[in-house]
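TA notes, week 10

Several of you asked for a full example with nothing omitted. So below is the full record: C-alpha cells for the whole chain, then the designed sequence directly under it. When grading your own attempts, check the secondary structure regions first.
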C-alpha cells in the first residue's frame, strides 16, 4: 500500500492512499497529516477500512504531489555501503581514515539533513550549490519512523551532495549536504513491507542531459551493512522525535569521479518496491 501527500488546485494539502492510478483523499476522513497516521496502532487494517469507504478520488496524474513528510525531521546515515566508503576515501586525503573507521565502528555516521518543508517533491527541482564544482545525487532508501522509532514505511530519497566541499575538509560536511533543495523524497511511502522484504529491493538511478543518458547505476538494499533497527536505534538514542523522523540510509551508487551534475539534468531514482522519484536540477 502506498501513501502520499498532495495538493489540490485550491492549494490545500491532503493525505492520500494510492490505489492503482487513483488517489483516495483521506483528508475527507479528517486525516490531514501523514505523521499523525503513523502513530496509529494497526495502521494497515485502518487503511484497509478506509480503502473500502466511498471517499473522494482524484486521478494520480492530476494532483500535485508533495514530499511525503510533514512534521518529521529528516536525517541521513552515511558510509553504510562499501561503495560509499571507497568513494569518500578517494575524494579526500586527510579524511580517508575517518570514513574507513566509521564503516567498521559500532556507532554509525548520522547527520541532520533537512526540515520537512525544505524537502523537494517528485517532479520538482533539486539544487546544486552555486560555488561547488563537483555535485552528485545520492539515491537512498528512506526509513519513515514514528515517534516510537518504529518503521512505519519506506520512501525514496536523494541526498544531494557537493563532493568537492565535502572532500576539502570533513568539517564542511553540513555545507556539502544542507542547502536549499538538497533533499528530495517521494513519490510515496510504501507501508506494510517488512525489513526482510525491503532488503530484497533493487535501487536504480538514471541521469539524462538533453534527453541523452549520461549516467546509470544500480545497487541493492541488501548491500547496506547495518540493520535498519541499528540505524533507527542510534538516531533515537537520547533524542526524541515527537512527530517521528525520516532517515535516509546511505548511498551505494557513486558516479565516476569525472561526473558532475549540470543545471537542466534529469534524475530518476527507482526502488523496486516503491516506485520512481524524478527531479530536474537547478542552481540555488
Ligand atoms: O560522510 C559523508 C556522507 C556519506 C553519505 O551521505 C552516504 O554514504 O550516503
Ligand atoms: Mg548520502
Amino acid at each position: 500500500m502506498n501513501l502520499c501527500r498532495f495538493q489540490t488546485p485550491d492549494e490545500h494539502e491532503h493525505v492520500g492512499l494510492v490505489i492503482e492510478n487513483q488517489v483516495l483523499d483521506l483528508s475527507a476522513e479528517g486525516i490531514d497529516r501523514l505523521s499523525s497516521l503513523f502513530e496509529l496502532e494497526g495502521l494497515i487494517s485502518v487503511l484497509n477500512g478506509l480503502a473500502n469507504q466511498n471517499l473522494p478520488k482524484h486521478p494520480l496524474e492530476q494532483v500535485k504531489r508533495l514530499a511525503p513528510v510533514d512534521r518529521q525531521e529528516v536525517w541521513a546515515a552515511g558510509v553504510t555501503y562499501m561503495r560509499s566508503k571507497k568513494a569518500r576515501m578517494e575524494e579526500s586525503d586527510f579524511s580517508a581514515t575517518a570514513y574507513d573507521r566509521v564503516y567498521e565502528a559500532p556507532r554509525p555516521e548520522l547527520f541532520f539533513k533537512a526540515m520537512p518543508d525544505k524537502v523537494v517533491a517528485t517532479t520538482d527541482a533539486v539544487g546544486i550549490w552555486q560555488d561547488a564544482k563537483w555535485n552528485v545525487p545520492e539515491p537512498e532508501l528512506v526509513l519513515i519512523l514514528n515517534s516510537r522509532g518504529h518503521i512505519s514505511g519506506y520512501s525514496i530519497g536523494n541526498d544531494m551532495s557537493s563532493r568537492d566541499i565535502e572532500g576539502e575538509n570533513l568539517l564542511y560536511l553540513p555545507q556539502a549536504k544542507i542547502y536549499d533543495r538538497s533533499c528530495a523524497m517521494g513519490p510515496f511511502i510504501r507501508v506494510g513491507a517488512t525489513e526482510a522484504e525491503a532488503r530484497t529491493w533493487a535501487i536504480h538511478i538514471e541521469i539524462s542531459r538533453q534527453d541523452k543518458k549520461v549516467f546509470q547505476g544500480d545497487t541493492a538494499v541488501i548491500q547496506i551493512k547495518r540493520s535498519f533497527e541499528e540505524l533507527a536505534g542510534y538516531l533515537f538514542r537520547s533524542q526524541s522525535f515527537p512527530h517521528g523522523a525520516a532517515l535516509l540510509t546511505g548511498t551505494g551508487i557513486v558516479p565516476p569521479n569525472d561526473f558532475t551534475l549540470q543545471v537542466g539534468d534529469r534524475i530518476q531514482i527507482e526502488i523496486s518496491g516503491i516506485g520512481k522519484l524524478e527531479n530536474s536540477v537547478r542552481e540555488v
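The CA atoms of residues 32 and 47 lie 14 Å apart. Use that as a sanity check on your answer.
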